[in-house]
Write a structure and sequence with these properties.
With 90 residues, the protein is α+β, with helices and mostly antiparallel strands. It has one domain (7-89). Helix content is 48%, strand content 18%. A 3-stranded antiparallel sheet has the order 1-2-3.
């Protein structure tokens, strides 16, 4: 991950086939890894549908929040640099 992108952009997508799925039930589940950072799952009747839901969520999240994430990351980096300069001047 770089400071120029939201962390969800590099999150791995893990897809699982359910063993207990009955007819017409959810057969596939996808989760973004690390699971504790992204406690959400996507379900679908097919693997492709499941992946499409997850990727749509990822794209929406990046579109909504990436600019704010980048601004906060840059501000934090600037604060760290100022703190280092202040400590070095002592």
């Amino acid at each position: 991950m770089t400071q120029e992108q939201h962390p969800i952009a590099s999150a791995e997508l893990h897809v699982f086939q359910r063993q207990t799925a009955g007819s017409g039930a959810v057969n596939w589940i996808a989760k973004l890894y690390p699971y504790d950072a992204y406690p959400i799952f996507f379900s679908g009747a097919t693997e492709a549908a499941c992946i499409a839901q997850a990727e749509a969520f990822r794209a929406e999240t990046i579109a909504k929040f990436e600019a704010g994430f980048i601004a906060r990351a840059k501000a934090a980096a600037e604060r760290r640099e100022k703190r280092k300069a202040k400590e070095a001047a002592k």
